[in-house]
Amino acid sequence: MHNSTVVTSMKDEAPYIIEWVAYHRALGFDRIVILANDCTDGTHEILSRMNDMGVITYIENKVPLGAKPHSRALKIANQSDEVKSADFVMVLDADEFLVVKQKPHTLDVLIKEMTKRSADMMVIPWRIFGSSKRVNFKDQPVIERFTCSMSVSGLPKAGVKTLFRQSDDTRLAIHFPKPLMKGGKAITDPKKSLWIDAGGKKIDSGKLTWNGGKNKIHRDFAEVAHFMIKSLDEYLLKIFRGDGLMNSNRHGIDYWRNGDHNTESDLIVSDMCPGFEAEYDKLSADPELASLHQQAVAMRLKRVRKILTNPSVKELRDILKRSTQGSLKKSDVKRSRDLVTEMSPPPVPEVIMDGPIPHSTLLSITAPGLADSSDIAHRVFKGARSNATMFSPEKDFAKRPITNLVKGLERAQKGNRTKSLSARWFHNYARALPQDGWPLDEEILVVITRDSPSIMEQFPTYVTRSKSKYVDKNHGGRPPLRKVLSGKETPEDLEALIADGTIEDPRLKLSKYLSAEPKAIVLNLDHPEDVAATLNRIEESKGPSGPVVATLLRGVLSNSLPTETAPSPAPSAEEAVPITPARTRPVKRVTTQPLRMHWFQRNGGNSAGNFGDELGPMVVRHLTNKEVAWAPAGQCDLASIGSILSQVSRAAQKSKRKTPLLIWGSGLIEEDATPLHSSLSVLAVRGKKTRSTLGLDPDMPLGDPGIFASDLVPAAAKKYRWGIVPHYSQRNSSNIRALGRSDDCIIIDPTDSVENVLKKISSCAAIMSSSLHGLIVADSYNIPCLWLNIPSHKSHEFKFADYCSGLGRELFSEVSLEQAENALLLDPPVEPHFVDASIKEQLSKALIL
């Protein structure tokens, strides 16, 4: 005997709750878990009553700033006993109904089909239902009122949901479960699970996206009925707030037309669940629940009457009605979009919390290379408790910076404090840089260090004691530090390892970091008098939290400072930050000439550049502080970015090149195993596919230089809901331009300047791109993205998969041009990918010129 759980997340769904719960109970789900947030229409009260009746498990989803309600709901549900102890689980939205098409139309049918095939996952496609040409809201079950839907001949792609066997190695997600991650890697390989569709056919999970991806999803056994819009008045209730303004400017004629599918009536949902009426009547027999339902219905009807007093709303309603009737005119479309613009609320600054907001300071601390670095970090953690400070290690802080800062602000506000101090400890110089949207007034960056001789003495011990993962990883073609150093090495041993390129010089690394961070406060523990003076300056000049920061650091560093009190002589520049450290590899020449670099130029440089290619020299210039000049492939010193590796190799062969030509971050255009010319010295390539195809060193660093985009141009304030980045060859396509007709969507010209393209991409809440670098830049700015899969050249898919393999990220969720318009009407069905700082670090280290 098995038990099953269905999970959903709601906001203001009061009139529909009894129906949804009754239906899925009748279908055979043993337990129903519902989370709801920010409800004002009686949803909370109805769910609370059902919870008291033992019908459902209700969890109120209190969403902090910066968190996504749906994602947070699933994270909470994933930890519930109802999910953890279930045999089978499914995630559905409140406007989705699982329909079992085979008799007796219960969940057991699907579970038996899965068991027969030893399947772990059954992927079930949407069927989108339209308005059935209904205008008015009515207190009658949705599954009885709406019987017209999209045509499913030809197995169209329209979104999927998944019934799956519960496992401790997976987590809930909107469309299908995702593997739990540990150390950036999946605990178990999803491909080891058997995935089938709702026709019993095996599917490739590696090619699965929110709408099925490259899999053809059959629907013999089941479908998910998706009632996106319902009746015209219900659609208006969905898109308008109580004050008559629209919830967003993405709704209107375009959303309505893409959701109003009335082509077929071959699936009547109410006929597919024989026990529904009895279950509905049973729940409605509870007097308190019935009363709450009637109150919710009355509130809906009142809201309809109120919003229809607005002439603009009535005009939009008439246009939408004509659309359903098939009498829409071209002028109606334009007018509806104008009405949407007029009635959309102006952008307003987001309110973090009620009442006075405390001054927000973030203290960021690192102590690289010191033997007692871990001890200092632990003392920061302990000291934070007694200094009213929120402490997080960087790996936790970087996942949710806004949420972490807001928690500190809320605690400060609750304690009637006028200032909030948050602290984080980061390793290996890798920290998330403050962004415009963070609730932050000031960052205080502190680097704790010692003189050069002390660093050389302590570095081996630091490596053996460090809890940071980077000491266990390869860097720039070098072996992991923990494998090289035992902790017993002398400074002379270290110098030798630096000279032969086995390890990077920790003094040089410190020097580079301090040069890049001129505002960093350096506390050199070999000079306690200087430390004391610096802490005094922090106390006096670093804003409202300065005194707390100084007090915290004094307590933290008291055990690390020398016991003598006599002033120490100030270090020489060479001791504190070496100017000429031992080189990690021989340098070819010393010259003031620009670095000769090759990247793709359109029409030989006679046309406007493609931003993805022009991004390469900007990244190299940023990381090396060298001037860069374009050079032909056979005459350059360095080739980087783009699928130009084979081209550069052929050019080197043609010119019979003898001198080394460095390759950094480039990749193949297709799976071509032709050996590279002997002159090519490969520092890093774009991804695993390029690396394995060419048989390169399996420890070679991976990554596309585009992941450094957010380091070049600060993120802009969010302005658009969607940004569309076409491949440069598709930028003038009328089909592409048609996608950008909504006011909350922008078409981003890939031949614009790199700075402008990056600013525009970062100003979008989500990106849809047929350009690989449009997606890479979205990753850099932590923006959700969809791959608009329009072929631009032969084997064009190779480079997309290559990039993803280099980051260890899932393949991009993709949409076709035909699906794009519908996808733009919805919120992005994917989470942003956070680029691992260690990947950027390894790629940066590999660029040694």
UniProtKB/TrEMBL annotation:
Keyword Transmembrane: yes
Membrane topology: Single-pass membrane protein
Domain Polysaccharide pyruvyl transferase: 648-789
Gene3D superfamilies: Spore Coat Polysaccharide Biosynthesis Protein SpsA, Chain A (3.90.550.10)
Pfam families: Glyco_tranf_2_4, PS_pyruv_trans
Keywords assigned by UniProt, alphabetized: Membrane, Plasmid, Transmembrane, Transmembrane helix
Compartments where found: Membrane
Record protein name field: Polysaccharide pyruvyl transferase domain-containing protein
Protein source organism: Pseudooceanicola algae
Lineage: Bacteria, Pseudomonadati, Pseudomonadota, Alphaproteobacteria, Rhodobacterales
